[in-house]
Protein backbone atom coordinates (compact mmCIF):
# COMPACT_ATOMS: atom_id res chain seq x y z
CA UNK A 1 0.00 0.00 0.00
CA UNK A 2 1.31 3.46 -0.82
CA UNK A 3 1.46 6.36 1.56
CA UNK A 4 1.14 9.92 0.40
CA UNK A 5 2.35 12.57 2.86
CA UNK A 6 0.31 15.51 1.72
CA UNK A 7 1.53 18.51 3.63
CA UNK A 8 1.92 20.25 6.92
CA UNK A 9 -1.17 22.18 7.91
CA UNK A 10 -0.34 25.83 7.32
CA UNK A 11 -1.88 28.76 9.12
CA UNK A 12 -1.91 27.00 12.47
CA UNK A 13 0.56 26.65 15.29
CA UNK A 14 1.67 23.95 15.70
CA UNK A 15 1.89 22.60 12.18
CA UNK A 16 0.63 19.05 12.09
CA UNK A 17 2.24 16.35 10.00
CA UNK A 18 -0.57 14.70 8.03
CA UNK A 19 -0.45 11.62 5.81
CA UNK A 20 -3.00 9.90 3.61
CA UNK A 21 -2.77 6.11 3.28
CA UNK A 22 -4.97 4.86 0.40
CA UNK A 23 -5.90 1.17 0.02
CA UNK A 24 -5.02 -0.87 -3.04
CA UNK A 25 -8.74 -1.56 -3.51
CA UNK A 26 -11.15 1.00 -2.10
CA UNK A 27 -14.25 -0.43 -0.39
CA UNK A 28 -16.16 2.81 -0.98
CA UNK A 29 -16.45 3.56 2.75
CA UNK A 30 -15.63 6.85 4.43
CA UNK A 31 -12.03 7.57 5.49
CA UNK A 32 -10.75 6.64 8.94
CA UNK A 33 -8.91 9.27 11.00
CA UNK A 34 -6.38 7.82 13.45
CA UNK A 35 -5.40 9.70 16.63
CA UNK A 36 -2.42 8.34 18.58
CA UNK A 37 -1.58 8.52 22.28
CA UNK A 38 0.70 10.64 24.44
CA UNK A 39 4.44 10.24 23.76
CA UNK A 40 3.62 8.12 20.70
CA UNK A 41 3.23 8.91 16.99
CA UNK A 42 1.60 7.67 13.82
CA UNK A 43 4.56 5.36 13.26
CA UNK A 44 4.60 3.85 16.74
CA UNK A 45 0.86 3.70 17.35
CA UNK A 46 -0.48 2.78 13.91
CA UNK A 47 2.26 1.77 11.45
CA UNK A 48 4.44 -0.49 13.60
CA UNK A 49 1.40 -2.21 15.14
CA UNK A 50 -0.11 -3.06 11.75
CA UNK A 51 -3.23 -0.92 12.05
CA UNK A 52 -2.83 1.00 8.80
CA UNK A 53 -2.08 -2.16 6.85
CA UNK A 54 -5.10 -3.88 8.41
CA UNK A 55 -7.44 -1.00 7.60
CA UNK A 56 -6.07 -0.72 4.05
CA UNK A 57 -6.65 -4.43 3.54
CA UNK A 58 -10.27 -3.84 4.56
CA UNK A 59 -10.49 -1.24 1.76
CA UNK A 60 -10.38 1.79 4.06
CA UNK A 61 -8.56 5.01 3.27
CA UNK A 62 -6.64 6.13 6.37
CA UNK A 63 -5.78 9.67 7.41
CA UNK A 64 -3.09 10.03 10.09
CA UNK A 65 -2.02 13.03 12.13
CA UNK A 66 0.97 13.43 14.42
CA UNK A 67 -0.09 15.50 17.42
CA UNK A 68 1.93 18.65 18.18
CA UNK A 69 5.32 17.83 19.66
CA UNK A 70 5.00 14.22 18.47
CA UNK A 71 6.35 12.30 15.49
CA UNK A 72 7.01 14.53 12.48
CA UNK A 73 4.88 17.45 13.69
CA UNK A 74 6.36 20.73 14.87
CA UNK A 75 7.11 21.30 18.56
CA UNK A 76 6.26 24.95 19.18
CA UNK A 77 7.04 26.71 22.43
CA UNK A 78 3.59 28.24 22.96
CA UNK A 79 1.54 26.23 25.44
CA UNK A 80 -1.73 27.08 23.69
CA UNK A 81 -0.55 25.11 20.66
CA UNK A 82 -0.93 21.91 22.68
CA UNK A 83 -4.33 22.55 24.24
CA UNK A 84 -7.08 20.01 23.44
CA UNK A 85 -9.33 22.79 22.09
CA UNK A 86 -6.59 24.00 19.73
CA UNK A 87 -5.88 20.46 18.57
CA UNK A 88 -9.58 19.96 17.83
CA UNK A 89 -9.55 23.12 15.72
CA UNK A 90 -6.47 21.89 13.86
CA UNK A 91 -8.12 18.50 13.25
CA UNK A 92 -11.13 20.24 11.73
CA UNK A 93 -8.77 22.11 9.41
CA UNK A 94 -7.12 18.82 8.44
CA UNK A 95 -10.50 17.34 7.48
CA UNK A 96 -11.38 20.43 5.47
CA UNK A 97 -8.05 20.32 3.64
CA UNK A 98 -8.75 16.72 2.65
CA UNK A 99 -12.33 17.52 1.55
CA UNK A 100 -13.70 15.19 4.20
CA UNK A 101 -15.87 18.01 5.49
CA UNK A 102 -17.34 20.79 3.34
CA UNK A 103 -15.37 24.01 2.98
CA UNK A 104 -18.53 25.87 2.06
CA UNK A 105 -22.24 25.25 1.68
CA UNK A 106 -23.14 22.98 -1.19
CA UNK A 107 -19.83 21.14 -1.32
CA UNK A 108 -20.37 17.44 -0.60
CA UNK A 109 -18.20 15.65 1.92
CA UNK A 110 -18.18 12.13 3.29
CA UNK A 111 -17.38 12.70 6.93
CA UNK A 112 -15.08 10.30 8.74
CA UNK A 113 -14.85 7.48 11.21
CA UNK A 114 -12.29 7.87 14.00
CA UNK A 115 -10.07 5.45 15.88
CA UNK A 116 -8.27 6.94 18.87
CA UNK A 117 -5.97 5.45 21.45
CA UNK A 118 -5.29 6.71 24.98
CA UNK A 119 -4.92 10.52 24.70
CA UNK A 120 -6.23 10.11 21.16
CA UNK A 121 -9.42 8.64 22.63
CA UNK A 122 -9.91 11.65 24.88
CA UNK A 123 -9.44 13.98 21.90
CA UNK A 124 -11.80 11.88 19.77
CA UNK A 125 -14.49 11.88 22.49
CA UNK A 126 -14.46 15.69 22.62
CA UNK A 127 -14.15 16.08 18.85
CA UNK A 128 -17.08 13.74 18.25
CA UNK A 129 -19.19 15.59 20.80
CA UNK A 130 -18.48 19.00 19.25
CA UNK A 131 -18.60 17.93 15.57
CA UNK A 132 -21.38 15.30 15.51
CA UNK A 133 -22.35 16.01 11.91
CA UNK A 134 -18.84 15.08 10.70
CA UNK A 135 -18.23 11.86 12.61
CA UNK A 136 -20.20 8.70 11.84
CA UNK A 137 -18.67 6.11 14.18
CA UNK A 138 -15.75 6.02 16.61
CA UNK A 139 -13.56 3.37 18.21
CA UNK A 140 -11.82 4.50 21.40
CA UNK A 141 -8.99 2.34 22.71
CA UNK A 142 -7.55 2.55 26.23
CA UNK A 143 -10.22 5.07 27.30
CA UNK A 144 -11.09 6.26 30.79
CA UNK A 145 -13.36 8.82 32.39
CA UNK A 146 -10.36 10.50 33.99
CA UNK A 147 -7.19 11.91 32.48
CA UNK A 148 -3.80 10.56 33.58
CA UNK A 149 -2.10 13.74 32.37
CA UNK A 150 -4.24 15.84 34.71
CA UNK A 151 -2.60 14.20 37.74
CA UNK A 152 0.89 14.26 36.20
CA UNK A 153 3.50 15.62 38.65
CA UNK A 154 5.18 18.27 36.51
CA UNK A 155 7.54 19.43 39.26
CA UNK A 156 8.81 15.89 39.80
CA UNK A 157 9.31 15.40 36.07
CA UNK A 158 11.29 18.62 35.84
CA UNK A 159 13.45 17.59 38.82
CA UNK A 160 14.14 14.27 37.12
CA UNK A 161 15.36 16.04 33.99
CA UNK A 162 17.38 18.67 35.85
CA UNK A 163 18.80 16.68 38.77
CA UNK A 164 18.07 13.05 38.04
CA UNK A 165 15.81 12.86 41.11
CA UNK A 166 13.57 9.76 40.90
CA UNK A 167 9.84 10.38 40.53
CA UNK A 168 7.82 9.01 43.44
CA UNK A 169 4.38 9.01 41.80
CA UNK A 170 4.19 5.70 39.88
CA UNK A 171 1.88 6.97 37.13
CA UNK A 172 4.00 10.05 36.46
CA UNK A 173 7.10 7.86 36.49
CA UNK A 174 5.56 5.51 33.92
CA UNK A 175 4.48 8.35 31.63
CA UNK A 176 7.97 9.84 31.81
CA UNK A 177 9.47 6.45 31.05
CA UNK A 178 7.27 6.25 27.96
CA UNK A 179 8.19 9.80 26.95
CA UNK A 180 11.93 9.12 27.21
CA UNK A 181 11.77 5.67 25.64
CA UNK A 182 11.68 7.08 22.11
CA UNK A 183 14.99 8.83 21.32
CA UNK A 184 13.37 11.28 18.92
CA UNK A 185 10.75 12.49 21.43
CA UNK A 186 11.04 16.13 22.48
CA UNK A 187 10.43 15.63 26.20
CA UNK A 188 10.16 19.35 26.90
CA UNK A 189 7.44 19.66 24.25
CA UNK A 190 5.61 16.73 25.84
CA UNK A 191 5.74 18.44 29.23
CA UNK A 192 4.32 21.57 27.60
CA UNK A 193 1.44 19.42 26.35
CA UNK A 194 0.90 18.16 29.92
CA UNK A 195 0.63 21.76 31.10
CA UNK A 196 -1.89 22.56 28.36
CA UNK A 197 -3.98 19.48 29.16
CA UNK A 198 -4.03 20.42 32.83
CA UNK A 199 -5.51 23.78 31.81
CA UNK A 200 -8.39 21.98 30.04
CA UNK A 201 -9.31 18.99 32.20
CA UNK A 202 -11.29 16.13 30.69
CA UNK A 203 -14.92 16.26 31.85
CA UNK A 204 -16.65 13.72 29.59
CA UNK A 205 -20.14 14.25 31.03
CA UNK A 206 -20.16 17.88 29.82
CA UNK A 207 -19.99 16.93 26.13
CA UNK A 208 -21.08 13.42 25.16
CA UNK A 209 -20.77 12.02 21.62
CA UNK A 210 -24.06 10.66 20.30
CA UNK A 211 -22.82 8.55 17.41
CA UNK A 212 -22.14 4.80 17.80
CA UNK A 213 -19.03 4.18 19.91
CA UNK A 214 -16.95 1.09 20.53
CA UNK A 215 -14.81 1.40 23.66
CA UNK A 216 -11.95 -1.10 23.86
CA UNK A 217 -9.96 -1.70 27.03
CA UNK A 218 -7.37 -4.22 28.09
CA UNK A 219 -8.41 -6.36 31.03
CA UNK A 220 -5.26 -5.29 32.92
CA UNK A 221 -5.21 -1.66 31.76
CA UNK A 222 -5.45 0.48 34.90
CA UNK A 223 -5.67 3.67 32.81
CA UNK A 224 -8.87 2.30 31.23
CA UNK A 225 -10.36 0.91 34.44
CA UNK A 226 -13.14 3.53 34.21
CA UNK A 227 -14.06 2.76 30.60
CA UNK A 228 -17.47 1.50 31.73
CA UNK A 229 -18.22 4.97 33.11
CA UNK A 230 -17.71 6.40 29.63
CA UNK A 231 -19.89 3.68 28.12
CA UNK A 232 -22.64 4.54 30.59
CA UNK A 233 -22.55 8.19 29.52
CA UNK A 234 -22.87 7.65 25.77
CA UNK A 235 -26.26 6.54 24.44
CA UNK A 236 -24.83 4.35 21.65
CA UNK A 237 -21.72 2.92 23.29
CA UNK A 238 -20.57 -0.63 23.78
CA UNK A 239 -17.51 -1.88 25.65
CA UNK A 240 -15.11 -4.61 24.55
CA UNK A 241 -12.59 -6.00 27.05
CA UNK A 242 -9.40 -7.63 25.77
CA UNK A 243 -8.33 -10.51 28.06
CA UNK A 244 -4.90 -10.16 29.70
CA UNK A 245 -4.04 -7.00 27.76
CA UNK A 246 -2.52 -3.86 29.30
CA UNK A 247 -2.42 -0.23 28.22
CA UNK A 248 0.92 -0.87 26.57
CA UNK A 249 -0.06 -3.88 24.46
CA UNK A 250 -3.82 -3.64 23.90
CA UNK A 251 -3.20 -1.63 20.74
CA UNK A 252 -1.34 -4.56 19.17
CA UNK A 253 -4.28 -6.96 19.61
CA UNK A 254 -5.63 -8.55 16.43
CA UNK A 255 -8.99 -8.93 18.18
CA UNK A 256 -9.00 -5.15 18.67
CA UNK A 257 -8.30 -4.56 14.98
CA UNK A 258 -10.95 -7.04 13.85
CA UNK A 259 -13.60 -5.61 16.16
CA UNK A 260 -12.80 -2.05 15.06
CA UNK A 261 -13.01 -2.83 11.33
CA UNK A 262 -16.30 -4.70 11.77
CA UNK A 263 -17.79 -1.98 13.97
CA UNK A 264 -16.89 0.85 11.61
CA UNK A 265 -18.28 -1.03 8.61
CA UNK A 266 -21.62 -1.80 10.31
TrEMBL record:
GO CC aspect terms: membrane
Pfam families on file: Abhydrolase_1
Region (Disordered): 1-20
Keyword entries, A-Z: Hydrolase
Signal peptide annotation: none
InterPro entries: AB_hydrolase_1 (IPR000073), AB_hydrolase_fold (IPR029058), AB_hydrolase_sf (IPR050266)
Ranges for domain AB hydrolase-1: 31-155
Gene Ontology MF annotations: hydrolase activity
Name this polypeptide is given: Alpha/beta fold hydrolase
